[in-house]
Amino acid sequence: MLMEVDLFFNMRENNNLQKLKMMKTTKLTLLLIFIISVSTYAQKDYDAVKDKEIKTNLGRNSSVKGFGSLELKTTEIKDDIALMPGIMGGIIMNDHFILGLGGYGMAAEIDFIGTEPEIRQYLYGGYGGLILGAIIAPREVIHVNIPILIGAGGAYITENASHDFDGSSEEFDESSAFFVIEPGIELEMNITRFFRLGVGASYRYITESDLVNITDSELNNYSGHI
User: I need a surface site. Which of 28, 71, 153, 187 has the fewest CB within 10 A?
Assistant: First the structure.
């Protein structure tokens, strides 16, 4: 009789242990299901917000840096060498794309014989505009830039040299605005992280001027710069 009682209590204890194990397993299962459900909902909510974000060329990992530079162009106009100092500045996006503004002016007048024989005339002028460009391998010590300037300029012609010219429009023999496009290529060296030195060449294409003593084709030419 005693053995039967012990056996009964042992079986009951085992049943209780099994029930406890099942309850623990059930609780863990429910907790796991709850965690998975919350994670799935959070992911769907994040994806929904992400899909509603405005997509742009500059993402969160993009970089925008400012720059400024001085340039000295040398070119030929009417068989004479012209020096054209200039300045440009703007931003560099993701180390590869250039967006900026630039302008150049003649350091000294160009003298030439116009349409009237034996009358020496002097040309002054400059131009500027929007600069777009691409940088190839910017992290290399020596890399390549491909810029293009799109803009406008002005030229005026007088019979007075710079030392006799006071800038009055009454002294102009003629003047005109013009449209200019100047694509180029540059070889640039990284001296430091914040200083670069480059040399390059470009072609200046001018059109839509109304000058009589000098033509657009005579204003077009190659330039070298540093």
Answer: 28
- Distance in angstroms (rounded) separating the CA atoms of residues 198 and 178: 28
Give this prediction's pTM.
0.71
Its sign, for the CA torsion 170, 171, 173, 177, is negative
Paired strand residues for 206 = 180
Cα–Cα distance, 161 to 60 (Å, whole number): 56
What phi and psi, each to the nearest 5 degrees, are found at residue 48? -65, -40
- In eight-state DSSP terms, residue 52 is H
pLDDT in tens, 21-68: 566 566 556 655 655 554 555 455 545 545 555 555 555 667 899 999
Q: Which residues of 72-89 are buried (b: 16+ CB within 10 A; e: fewer)?
A: ebebebbeeebebebebe
Sign of CA dihedral 14, 18, 19, 20: positive
Please state, rounded to an integer, the average pLDDT across all residues of the chain.
Answer: 80
What does the alpha-carbon distance between residue 65 and residue 8 come to, in Å, rounded to a whole number?
Answer: 83
How many other CB atoms are found less than 10 A from the CB of residue 131?
21
Q: How far apart are CA 96 and CA 209, in angstroms?
A: 34
